[in-house]
Amino acid sequence: MKNLIVYINEKLKITKKMLSPKKILTPKTKNDLIIMIIHEVKSVDESGFLDLNHIDVSNIDNLNSVFHKKHFPDNEIMLDIDISSWKLDQVEDMEFLFYNDKINSVILPDTKKLDEYLFHNCENLTEAILPPSLAEIENYFMDYCKKLKTIEIPDSVTKIGCTAFRNCSSLTNIILPDSITNMREGIFSNCDKLKSIKLPKKLEALEYDMFLYCSNLEEVYLSNNIKNIENNVFDNCKKLTKIHYDGTMSEWSKIKLDNNWLEGSVVKEIICNNGTVNC
After folding, report:
1. CA–CA–CA angle 136, 141, 146 (5° rounding)
2. What percent of the chain has pLDDT over 90?
3. What percent of the chain has pLDDT over 70?
4. CB–CB of 46/16 below 8 Å?
5. Taking the mean position of all CA atoms in its chain, how far away is CA 242?
6. Looking at the whole model, is its pTM more than 0.85?
């Protein structure tokens, strides 16, 4: 059970010295949870939010003055973040915001787009709740989040950028809605705990390196809307034995297959609705 320490701040010009826990208060144990609740901010120096477990700034009107990567350096003890009430249209730039931070979980606010590298290399991140209005996930969104085990993509999403979940080496389950029409290259490369995946019905192409080095991937489910499969999509998927295609053998024969699309896998046949096709 964590001890809760709350520091309430009505109005303040925030500096690094003022917000360092050693300056405002001293945790008695390593389990102390330090929360800062800020109601109004005049300005924030760089690295202003150093070493906090949780920050609640939901009542601040002008988030541009406080919400920027320079205020969140590579924190060592930040644990859980709930920014579900924030209005991201007030934020100038979210790219790299939580890059390399030691966060465990995050609840994101209502938004249509999330910037590149937002959670890049957040190695302790185990849970992320994405907003239901989200339409697009940008490149490198959660790559190298090595403790992320499961994630559900909202059914409002239509596009996922390149290598968005690369090297999520603990990822065992991802729910992809049929609304997705575009998934860029290398999205799940090196997700070596992933065993089975069902791709969206509206997806038309598997771009190169999509499942590169997914060494435990065993089954993939494709819709009959697939028109193109690029090189090295399943490269070094050494346990991949079954590709299920939700269409006929005749429909499969019309798909454009690049020469090395099955490089490094052990797939011998494609399971169609009316029979199998040898690879």
Report:
1. 140
2. 50
3. 63
4. yes
5. 27
6. no
